[in-house]
Automatic annotation (TrEMBL):
One of its GO terms (molecular function) is dihydroorotate dehydrogenase (quinone) activity. This is Dihydroorotate dehydrogenase (quinone). SUPFAM superfamilies: FMN-linked oxidoreductases (SSF51395). GO terms for biological process: 'de novo' pyrimidine nucleobase biosynthetic process; 'de novo' UMP biosynthetic process. Substrate binds at residues 70, 115-119, 177, 182, 247-248. The keyword Transport does not apply.
Length: 339
């Protein structure tokens, strides 16, 4: 069915159709019997799919990556498509509109997206209130946290603290996002000293609260091997739970789409990222001797793509652009293949 309606969706602006579709899902959730029907169509229940990772029990290893539901508004609706976990955000302490529109672009010839959204969100307090009312039904929720655009890097840790404290009681794990290319200067926080400062600070608060929340670090695919070695060292030194590999890329190598589209600034996601994200996963797993879990994300458009990331060393995987290009049936195909 999705193959029939996707060409219609792709006639509209990517950001506008995103909200049209999610609003439609919200309306459909209220129709008697429809949520149950969607669950029966897309959910794969199999004990063999369960995973225990960084102390949490996932009903299956396929999640939705951050960015799709920034404000936690569609968790119950998206859960009907069979995800084992959903990551919300990236959220910042204060609401912010993000970058000027248009800020999302399709590259159909490459089965990719370019986005420069800029952490548009309603603020962490709104997200926290929303998550308190969500019916989870076995779905684990991750909170992806960032800093406001106006916050200078030397004060960034305070923004991460505010998000961490506000979401602590309503998420199952945290993701520190210092790898988006769409907030000026943010990627500089991936350097060794500022990154250690942020992670050490959050880990201290984690222990102080008495209840442990796994903290993961989301990294860019554009890091060198030397920088990835630093990431391994930082993860082990700070004692965080693991890594999400990878975020979007600033590279534009080997694209088939016209330059008028590929020259847009922002992060590239989708199939062009498949191989590189898997390389990063494999390198981290080998260099660390699989000392910490990795969530693999980037260019997963098929069950084969997901399996390659798991075989490379990922414990879990996430989809985003593949979900848009392949439709909700992608999750079921991956899960059936793994089961």
């Amino acid at each position: 069915m999705y193959k029939l309606i996707k060409p219609v969706f792709f006639q509209f602006d990517p950001e506008k159709i995103h909200y049209t579709v999610t609003d439609t899902l919200k309306f459909a959730q209220k129709i008697w019997g429809l949520p149950r029907l969607l669950k029966s169509m897309y959910t794969v229940n199999d004990k063999n799919l369960e995973r225990e990772v960084f102390g949490l029990k996932f009903k299956n290893p396929v999640g939705l990556a951050a960015g799709f539901d920034k404000n936690g508004e569609f968790i119950e609706e998206l859960a009907n498509f069979g995800f084992g976990f959903i990551e919300v955000g990236t959220v910042t302490p204060l609401p912010q509109p993000g970058n000027d529109k248009p800020r999302m672009f399709r590259l159909p010839a490459d089965e990719a997206l370019i986005n420069r959204m800029g952490f548009n969100n309603k603020g962490v307090e709104v997200l926290a209130r929303k998550l308190k009312s969500v019916k989870r039904e076995g779905i684990l929720i991750g909170g992806n946290i960032g800093k406001n655009k106006v916050t200078p890097n030397e004060d960034a840790v305070s923004d991460y603290i505010k998000c961490f404290d506000a979401l602590f009681d309503v998420v199952d794990y945290f993701v520190v996002n210092v790898s988006s290319p769409n907030t000026p200067g943010l990627r500089a926080l991936q350097e060794k000293e500022p990154l250690k400062n942020i992670l050490h600070t959050l880990q201290k608060r984690n222990l102080k609260n008495g209840v442990f929340r796994p903290i993961l670090l989301k990294i860019a695919p554009d890091l060198s091997n030397e920088q990835l070695d630093d990431i391994v060292e930082i993860v082990q030194e700070t004692g965080i739970a693991g890594v999400i590999a990878t975020n979007t890329t600033i590279s534009r190598e080997n694209l088939q789409s016209p330059e008028s589209k590929t020259s847009e600034t922002g992060g590239l996601s989708g199939k062009p990222l498949t191989a590189r994200s898997t390389e990063v996963i494999r390198y981290l797993a080998q260099q660390s001797n699989r000392a910490f879990p990795i969530i693999g994300v980037g260019g997963i458009h098929s069950a084969k793509d997901a399996k390659e990331k798991l075989e490379a060393g990922a414990s879990l995987v996430q989809v985003y652009t593949g979900f848009i290009y392949e439709g909700p049936g992608l999750i079921k195909r991956i899960l059936k293949s793994l089961a």
